[in-house]
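> run fold Diguanylate cyclase/phosphodiesterase
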Amino acid sequence: MSEHHRPHDPDASRLADRAQMDPRRRLVYLTFSRTVLVVGTLAAVGVAWTQPTQTHSQLLWLGPLLVLGFLLAEHLTIDVDIRQVGWAISFTEIPLVLGLLTAPFEVVLAAHLVAGVGSQLVRRLTSNLVYNVGVMCLEIAGPFAVYALATEVLPDGAPRWTAAVLGTLASSLISVALAVTALNILRGEPRLPAALRLAAHTLVVGLLNTSVGVVGYEVAVSAPWGWALDVLVVAALVALYRGYYGLLREQRDLETLSDVSLSVARSGQRVAGKPGNLLDGALAEADTDEWQKIADRIREQLSAKRVVLRLRLDPVAPVRTLVAGKPLPEDAPPSRDDPILQLPGSQVRYFRSLDAADDVREALAQRAAHEALVVPLRGSNQLLGAVEAHDRLSRWRGFGRSDVQLLRTLASHLATAMDNRRLLARLRHDAYHDPLTGLLNRPGFREAAVDRLRRHAGSMVLRIDLDVLSAVGDALGHSWGDRMVIAAGGRLREALGSEVPLARLEGGTFAALLVDCDEEEGRRIAEQLHQELAAPYPVDRLSVEADAVVGYVQVPVEPADDGDADADVDTLLQWADVALRAARNAGDTVRGYVPSMGQIFLRRFQLVTQFRQALDTGQVRVHYQPKVALPGREVLGVEALVRWVHPEFGRLDPDEFVPAVEATGLVDALTSFVMDNALAKVRGWLDRGLRLSAAVNLSVRNLADESFPDRVAEALRRHDVPPRLLTFELTESGVMADPERALPVLRRLHALGVVLAVDDFGTGYSSLAYLRQLPVDEVKIDKSFVLGMGTDLGDMAVVRSIVELGHSLGLTVVAEGVEEDAARDQLVEMGCDVAQGYLISRPLSEDRFEAWLRARTVRARGRRDETVLTLVR
Ligand code: C2E
Ligand code: CA
Ligand code: CA
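> ok
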């Protein structure tokens, strides 16, 4: 068995699609193909003329036999690719040499033409018939001429087959020469060395083919039953060939499969390697390469003229079309009801214009294809695209069973890989994005920022807090709060543009990274963002007001001492947060970070993280400061004030750590701790016959906690203390921050019978009229007024009016910060009910407070016959 190499393209003649050739090439090609026809015909006529006419009794069956031989020889091709050019290995020399030895020229020529033109007509490949007929004539006339010449030239003793071999080889050379010429005209290839190599190859293969033919012939004519032997040998060889070819094909199919799967996996990795949708555009570009490679690889393996990959890489993107091989005639995408793209199930479908319905034939014509294999790419729950293979590159044969099989397997591999890829991209996207706003989330921001911080010098991290969200959420339901966050995110995105990394970190907190931006510009942008967010939000028919605070930090504030860029981003976000808090504390809207803020922040951070443990290990204690009635000096109770002796920082003021603790969820634990201690004390005094009340300071967070009143009731029960002996002190700003939320809690506390006091009165905005609406029993005049009374007439006036108005509202008025006798006397003169201050006592630890009671008070009989403690003078 041997082979014959033949370039596909000029053979199949489909490269010469006239519509797409440049006019000069086209003209040359037309001239060439016509010349080939003319020369071929002339040669045929010439040879026929010189040939001795012989009549042969066997001609009747010899003709059809040769036709069959040519058909078979061309059909049993093996396709291989040598340096990107497809070659079909065929066995045409065998019938040719047999024809040379047995039949007259006209019969061989006719057989070749019938076989060649016939199969082309059957497949409706008429475009290059002219050229092909010429080639076929030359392919037969050539060998006969050489054969005639050789019989003349060769010595008489030389066997007939030598001439036949020479003639047949001449035919092989002629077809290679024509093919190379045609290819050169059409594509400018192959170059001379490649053409020579090809010719050499062809000669070797041709020689083998020819020898097989000659041996077969000799065996048939000389050995008895030789033809039967030939049939056996041919059958065995065909079987061998098929087996070998099958193996070869399988192996190459497997290679293709693994290549394609690898390509998809690679593109998937690329997807996985990039953060978020920031880079989606670039990503799609990089991806195209990999898909193009896949299309090329499939085309190569199927020996198709063209492979079209139609991909829907994500549900919203338009279908992407990638073409390998010959471009599609026009770029217009096929219509929705293109019959070729109706793909139920996941089977491969085979269309041939030869036997197709009209609409299919039309769809094929639009693709300039005669046949098409089409398979859908079906993912786990949707259609991901389709693969089309057009026109097998062979003069004789269309797509076969193994092509269908390969395509089916390929499609399922591709679909699975795409599915995985998509899943990966989804997971990746979800991991880096905030589902509510579609902006980045914290990890996404980190990724995007790390990348940019590395590449740009003057960067700035902004942190933006949207306020009054809770009020909106409460008043209108939480979906409105969400809608405001979404709206705010939209405004920020709009103001910053699509290129700026923007994230929602949590709740109404956003972060943005500006690159190549100096302090001045950054501040301007921060102020602009603040304005954008502060504009009213139309929510339903309402217009909701919101406020925002912006903190920013310039990068780098300090040179980073280690290269951990991830940590840097977090630090920057923290610093921006510190700046934001500083702005908020100062009632500012925008503030930049300065390193001194960081020190405070660091300490606060430490305090917050250590507080829980401090509670458990006894570092936190409660101190008590007495409250006495005016003017009688009767001790009414105490205010419980928390103290923390920190192992590193020493004694800490509640003013330092309480606000920090309030910012976390730990304030519950603090309040419970103080309340428990205070109630235990009250219980102890009751057991000793003393009726002293305890005041506990509340934080805003307690008032926002709906379960708080229940916990208070439970604590009162547990310590068996009457509610009247428990006072809660709350600042007016604490109530005002979120009255909607605080009021119900206050009402329930009041209903329990607990005394409610407004602390630090006079420092906030609220009027006494507002107090009327709150279920409170007591006002505490802020110590700053009381302390200033001696020197400032204004302060004195404030204190006086609070006392009077408080009384008119039926409230007990307490003055705190009473340090001097003069102040106490004035308060008595004004009619203030209760005094608290250093004049009476500093806040004292439990033990020292007991000692104070023993040393500074005397037991006396009260108005209702109860025991009271009165301060000694
Ligand atoms: P506050 O509720 O206004 O407590 C009164 C503060 O005034 C106490 O400061 C007290 O030591 C101080 N003080 C009392 N008499 C005088 C005086 O004659 N002159 C001057 N100059 N100051 C006086 P402290 O203990 O440092 O507490 C500060 C703030 O910490 C408290 O202000 C309160 O708002 C908060 N706080 C204290 N303990 C707790 C607590 O257990 N829970 C909560 N949520 N906050 C607490
Ligand atoms: Ca207080
Ligand atoms: Ca106070």
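The first helix runs from residue 8 to 12.
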